[in-house]
Design brief:
Layout: H1 22-30, H2 38-48, E1 53-56, H3 63-74, E2 83-86, H4 90-103, E3 111-114, H5 120-127, E4 133-136, H6 138-146, E5 157-161, H7 163-169, H8 172-181, E6 187-192, H9 197-206, E7 211-214, E8 225-231, H10 237-248, E9 253-257, H11 260-272, E10 277-280, H12 286-298, E11 303-307, H13 308-311, E12 321-324, H14 331-338, E13 348-354, H15 359-369, H16 422-439
Parallel strand pairs: 1-6, 1-7, 2-4, 2-5, 3-4, 5-6, 8-13, 9-11, 9-12, 10-11, 12-13
Helix pairs in contact: 2-3, 3-4, 6-8, 14-15
Length: about 450
């Protein structure tokens, strides 16, 4: 793209310079892509050369296209079951399959997604058409293989996307079984936001002289999203959310909560206050989730409240705002979340609700994203709940019994926002402990 940033893109190269054919380039041109990201510029030539690759890059840097473009070029569109792409969640399976289908539109390569939560008979019907590319979750792929629907011996390419997430979820044994049953010499590509010693050991067990590619670049989404955070007490987050939604009136907002219970409670609260909000989490039946997604894509809803796992792979171009109602423990999850907005070259907005003891979380996110997230203060949204004024002051580990106050400084990584006595810090901490069990209950 002409507005590409040198922090993310390799501006002295185009996709044509990487060895891609005209049929594949047509799909890129139609989507407005011109320059490759750093991971794409490094991985695509290696994959086209037939090498096994272990690639690491930040979330939101175009890893799907990095392995998808050479895959679309190398496989025979008439061949059955040529490539197997493993992903951690059903939502991501749908997203990756859709992206590969769009990228391969001019190359006329068919892609089918297989995942749990959908009747297996529907997927079997699609697989009987012998598509070249299968994108699936490890559990459903194993199930189909045991039914002799997926012929592991025929796959020439094996790609594992977001390997770190698959291991976190617990697909370690399934991945080993699947890779062990593939033909002896498939071209294998691992892509991941992080490469732990375990991932590297796993990769090298099933690869032949792999090329390791590690890139350091700015996420595609970060530069397009206007990020800010609000300091708020746990018990006052719902009122702040309601205020922002009514005041700003976003076209389409996704509100992220950590637990399924929180998703339901926030959705119910918003509906009671005349905000048309819809919930989406892992305990919902797939049919109901599909209905919510259909409403979302058709523009029939304005607020979606979701858990991280349910929203993984959420691919809707019109999302204007992302709200981190609950801050994620993992900074990579934050990048995934804000990546739901600023799609297709658009701008986006991300609001984060930070409680007083989450300064370190915010700092870790800033370090990963390589940005300083500014604080926004809505005076109209400040709490009016009866409470001692001192209790509103945040407690931070920097406070010491020998000191009378915690002096706020710009360099303080814990966002010390106001001077407070040690006694006030202790009271605020006690309040937080009493509040935490009530607010953070529920299943993840």
């Amino acid at each position: 793209m002409d507005t590409a940033s040198p922090e993310t893109f390799v501006l002295d190269k185009t996709f044509a310079d990487l060895g891609l054919t005209s049929a594949v380039l047509e799909g890129l041109t139609a989507r407005g892509f011109r320059h490759p990201t750093r991971i794409q510029a490094a991985l695509i030539p290696a994959a086209l050369a037939g090498k096994d690759v272990l690639g690491q890059a930040k979330t939101g840097t175009g890893k799907t296209a990095a392995f998808g473009l050479p895959l679309l070029q190398m496989l025979d569109p008439e061949a059955r079951f040529s490539a197997l792409v493993l992903v951690p969640t059903r939502e991501l399976a749908i997203q990756v399959a859709k992206e590969l289908q769009e990228l391969g539109g001019f190359a006329k390569v068919q892609t089918v997604a297989v995942y749990g939560g959908q009747p297996i008979d529907k997927q079997v019907t699609l697989l009987k058409k012998n598509p070249p590319i299968i994108v699936g979750t490890p559990g459903r792929v194993m199930d189909l293989a045991e039914r002799n629907i997926l012929p592991f011996a025929e796959f020439r390419f094996a790609i594992l996307d977001e390997v770190d997430r698959m291991l976190d979820i617990g697909f370690r044994d399934d991945i080993r079984k699947i890779l062990g049953k593939l033909r002896k010499t498939p071209q294998t590509i691992f892509v991941s936001a992080t490469i732990s010693p375990e991932i590297e050991k796993l990769a090298r067990s099933y690869m032949k002289d792999p090329e390791k590619i590690v890139t350091f670049e700015k996420s595609l989404t970060v530069s397009q999203v206007k990020q800010s955070y609000f300091t708020v007490e746990r018990w006052d987050k719902r009122r702040l959310l309601l205020h922002l939604l009514k005041k700003e009136q976003p076209h389409l907002a996704v509100v992220f909560c950590r637990t399924k219970r929180a998703v339901d409670e926030v959705t119910e609260f918003l509906n009671r206050n005349k905000i048309d909000a819809h919930a989406m989490h892992g305990d919902m039946y797939q049919k109901k989730r599909d209905k919510v997604m259909e409403k979302l894509r058709e523009g029939d809803l304005s607020v979606l409240v979701a858990s991280d796992l349910a929203a993984r792979g959420l691919d809707v171009d019109d999302i204007t705002h992302v709200v981190n109602y609950d801050m994620p423990e993992d900074p990579e999850v934050y990048i995934h979340r804000i990546g739901r907005t600023a799609r297709a070259g658009r701008k986006g907005v991300a609001w984060s609700f930070v409680v007083p003891d989450q300064g370190d979380l915010l700092t870790n996110i800033e370090m990963l994203a390589n940005v300083e997230i500014p604080r926004t203060d809505y005076s109209a949204a400040r709490t009016r709940r009866p409470r001692a004024t001192a209790a509103q002051a945040p407690r931070f580990p920097r406070c010491r019994p020998s000191t009378r106050t915690c002096s706020p400084t710009a360099s303080c990584p814990r966002r010390c926002l106001a001077a407070a006595s040690v006694a006030a810090c202790a009271r605020a901490d006690a309040d937080a402990r009493r509040e935490t069990p009530r607010m953070n209950g529920g299943n993840r």
